[in-house]
Design goal:
Strand order of the largest sheet of chain C: 1-2
CATH superfamily of one domain in chain B: MetI-like
CATH topology of one domain in chain B: MetI-like fold
Largest sheet of chain C: 2 strands, antiparallel
Chains: A alpha/beta (about 260), B mainly alpha (about 280), C mainly alpha (about 290)
CATH architecture of chain C: Orthogonal Bundle
Number of helices of chain B: 12
Shape of chain B: extended
Oligomer: heterotrimer
Order of helices and strands of chain C: HHHEEHHHHHHH
Number of strands of chain C: 2
Number of strands of chain B: 0
Structural class of chain C: mainly alpha
CATH superfamily of chain C: MetI-like
Chain lengths: ~260, ~280, ~290
């Protein structure tokens, strides 16, 4: 269970990224957040695992307060939360396997991981996660030699290797084409259903949100302006969230 | 916790997965690293380092450090002003001549602007050869050719500048956009005209940047050339060194540092304004 | 009447000013050094005389016995100096780079404020001081202490290399992509994990390429250091020239050129391979 209580975040420059967010997310939910760039989606995601700290208010992950967590506790919380990024954030020169193994860093001593003495079990987990996203045969390929879609799948495998209870996805398909995006979204949905992992996804393509979402959250200028089931969402709701008329750039479009 | 076990059991169910083979590490690493270590050890021994001797020598450091930290400023100002100016003048002439001569050669040494394979090879090999000779060697050679004095220094550093500008510029020309060049050729211009109108303007900013860099290098090199009689402050440093007058050398070093910093600042300013 | 857009004045003015000052500086230098165009015109002829004296080179056993070991000595000096430079500059670079530096808090007793010592600032200044001294000057200073011979040259080259490699490496570290570091942090990794799995893989290829490039430069430097007796082939060249044994001087020159060319070629090839990475066939784009 993730709880955001009176959450506000103001950046050092004075920008108010989030204003008094109150939200509760049950275990196993598949949640999609939409909103314009700068509406606070990324910030909201990053307060969940403490990459950004709340200025006012609190974030509770399984009843543990993020701001009050000590260094060790914060690492433990993070190891239970997997995150994938718009730019994949893989280490380009390392192999796919090495990238996925970084998801196991929390459970291996620093010395062992640095010299590459990964316990057999961790390697097994890495392979299994690669198998889950159907990219096992590329285990020893250099990450930068893969296509965008493949790289994002490696990102998912890395997050999966943590055996997380929560999955955060910050604009995971923004740099991918329609076909690849749908595949990635399908993997995320499948993981959510198979393993009961709470999933929170930032998207700015409204048709993808409608296609895959269960519950929809709308952010506008740092405020929560919509919270409801995806079936109940209308076009005027979208217009409210965006504060402008919907254009074609808000849709990813059909597969070619 | 329960969710984690759930995930784990589901994953374990697929124990029938084909794990890809780990690729054999490239021979470069396998052979390279032991070779490097062996060679390092061998070189180290050949140099003949003895810790005892080294410690004993360190005790001698006072010969150097005492005068070094006792600079004689007035002597330095009196006697080194003129050689310093000489040093700067050598650097100015050498970098100017060397860089400008390097311009046409660089265009010949690049496949992009030189369709003739023969002249390309000639020029490129020439540049590669020139690059292998260190600046002081040029100094020694020209001193032997035109006798001691700053003239030898200018000639030596001209070759030095030519070599560096040649390499840098030809590599830059290799990576320019060929589009404008082809366009010029298609209007009926000769290769020369095409290069002059389309390729040259593209590399001018780089040329200027390299020129400033080479000028700084020439200042440093020019100081040292005096060692072999090619003019500049080096001559004075050498004579003072032989008599262990480090008290005179340290102010000279400071002056050199100041000049180098000053020129660096000018260089930065010019880069900002023009590039 | 169409108003043609005017070219920005300031840039052109500066360009004109620069061109004029360059011409002025050239004339000032040439006259100060008493170098006239006639002198320059005579130079090729005199150079040709020298070249014809250098060749054919002396390939007698005696000459080779003297010269070849010295050539290799230059190689050993350059190599060991580069190894010293690489070894010490590596940790220093991490301390100098702003994103990987450490902060030492010094507690003060009289007032409550702590002094923060940024290792990045301190290290960068130290590196600047070291870099300011060319290898030759360093060799000068070491000569009376460590005596004539290869050790002095190695120390001079080694220490100077620490300076240049330290600065270059720290710049590489500062220029990395922070994204993968964020990912490691988000999955529960600590600072060391970020360093070894995020920073090091990104910077190693470029840094190793810098080490190799430095080796190429150090080879030339070590050849030169011989002139003041710090080991290597420079001593031979200056001796042969002084004794007017031009054919032997030619031998030294040719030997040096061969050594430098070979090392340049090998090192260049390794550098290109490192930067490019193993050539891989195009991966299919299907998902």
């Amino acid at each position: 269970m993730i709880k955001y209580k009176n959450l506000s975040v103001t950046y050092p420059g004075g920008v108010e990224a989030l204003k008094n967010i109150n939200l509760e997310i049950e275990d196993g939910e598949f949640l999609i957040i939409v909103g314009l760039s700068g509406a606070g989606k990324s910030t909201l995601l990053r307060t969940t695992n403490g990459l950004i700290m709340p200025t006012i208010g609190e974030v509770y992950v399984d009843d543990k307060a993020i701001t009050k967590a000590g260094k060790k506790e914060l690492k433990e919380i993070r190891s239970n939360i997997g995150m994938i990024f718009q730019t994949f954030n893989l280490v380009n020169r390392s192999s796919v396997l090495k990238n996925v193994l970084t998801g196991r860093l929390h459970s291996v001593s620093t010395l062992k991981s640095t010299i590459g003495a990964w316990p057999k079990n961790d390697k097994k987990i890495a392979f299994e996660c690669l198998q889950q996203v159907e990219i096992l045969e590329k285990a020893y390929v250099r990450a930068s030699n893969l296509s965008g879609g493949q790289q994002q799948r490696v990102g998912i495998a890395r997050a999966l290797a943590q055996h997380p209870t929560v999955m955060l996805a910050d604009e995971p398909v923004a740099s991918l084409d329609p076909v690849t995006s749908r595949v990635v979204m399908k993997y995320l949905k499948k993981i959510n259903e198979d393993f009961d992992i709470t999933t929170i996804i930032n998207l700015h393509f409204l048709d993808l949100a409608k296609e895959f979402g269960d519950r929809l959250i709308g952010l506008k200028d740092g405020e929560l302006v919509y919270d409801g089931n995806i079936e109940d969402v209308t076009d005027s709701d979208f217009q409210n969230i965006y504060g402008r008329t919907i254009t074609s750039s808000d849709f990813i479009g059909e597969d070619e | 916790m329960e969710e984690q076990l759930h995930l784990q059991t589901l994953l374990e169910k697929m124990n029938k997965i084909r794990i890809p083979k780990k690729p054999f590490p490239s021979p470069l690493l396998y052979l390279g690293i032991p070779m490097v270590l062996l060679f390092t050890n061998y070189s180290y021994n050949k140099i003949g380092f003895s810790f005892k001797d080294f410690q004993r020598n360190l005790d001698n450091r006072h010969i150097v450090t005492d005068p070094l930290f006792n600079p004689k400023w007035s002597w330095a100002i009196e006697n080194t002003a003129s050689p310093m100016i000489e040093t700067v003048q050598i650097a100015i002439l050498a970098s100017l001549i060397g860089c400008f001569v390097a311009l046409p050669i660089s265009f010949f040494a690049s496949k992009t602007t030189n369709p003739s394979r023969l002249t390309f090879l000639l020029n490129k090999s020439f540049l590669n050869l020139i690059r292998t000779i260190p600046d002081l060697f040029w100094g020694m050679l020209f001193v032997a050719a035109v006798s001691q004095g700053p003239f030898a220094g200018v000639l030596a550093l001209t070759m030095f500048s030519l070599a560096i500008m040649g390499k840098l510029l030809s590599e830059t020309i290799d990576s320019i956009d060929v589009g404008p060049l082809e366009a010029a050729r298609s209007t009926g211009a000769t290769q020369q005209q095409a290069v002059y109108s389309s390729a040259l303007p593209q590399v001018m900013p780089n040329f200027l940047s390299y020129f400033l860099y080479i000028f700084e290098l020439c200042i440093r090199a020019s100081i040292i050339l005096g060692l072999v009689g090619a003019g500049g402050v080096g001559r004075i440093i050498e004579t003072q060194r032989i008599f262990l007058r480090f008290d005179r050398i340290s102010p000279i070093i400071v002056f050199i540092l100041l000049i180098v910093i000053f020129i660096e600042q000018i260089s930065i300013y010019i880069r900002k304004k023009v590039l | 009447m169409i108003d043609f857009p005017k070219q920005p004045v300031s840039k052109n003015v500066i360009k004109a000013f620069l061109s004029i000052s360059i011409v002025f500086l050239a004339i000032w230098s040439a006259s100060g050094l008493e170098i006239s165009l006639e002198r320059l015109a005579k130079a090729p002829q005199l150079t040709w005389i020298l070249i014809s004296a250098l060749f054919p080179i002396d390939l007698s056993q005696e000459a080779l016995d003297r010269i070849i070991p010295k050539v290799f000595e230059s190689l050993y000096i350059a190599w060991t100096g580069t190894v010293i430079g690489a070894l010490f500059s590596f940790p220093i670079a991490f301390l100098s780079a702003k994103n990987t530096s450490i902060t030492i808090r010094l507690p003060r007793f009289n007032n409550k404020k702590n002094i923060h010592l940024y290792s990045s600032y301190v290290m960068k200044q130290i590196l600047n001081v070291i870099r300011a001294f060319p290898e030759l000057i360093l060799a000068f200073i070491f000569l009376p202490i460590t005596g004539l011979g290869a050790l002095t040259g190695t120390l001079a080259i080694g220490i100077h290399s620490i300076g240049t490699l330290g600065k270059l490496s720290s710049e590489v570290i500062e220029g990395i992509d922070e994204g993968p570091l964020e990912a490691i942090k988000a999955s529960g990794g600590n600072k060391n994990n970020e360093l070894f799995f995020g920073v090091v893989p990104q910077v190693m290829p470029t840094i190793i390429a810098y080490w190799l490039y430095r080796f190429e430069i150090n080879l030339r430097a070590s050849a030169v250091l011989g002139v003041i007796g710090a080991g290597g082939v420079g001593q031979e060249l200056i001796n042969q020239l002084r004794f007017r044994a031009f054919d032997r001087a030619g031998t030294v020159l040719v030997a040096t050129v061969i050594l430098v060319l070979s090392i340049d070629t090998i090192s260049g090839a390794i550098r290109r391979r490192i930067i490019r990475g193993k050539s891989v066939s195009i991966v299919e784009a299907n998902i």
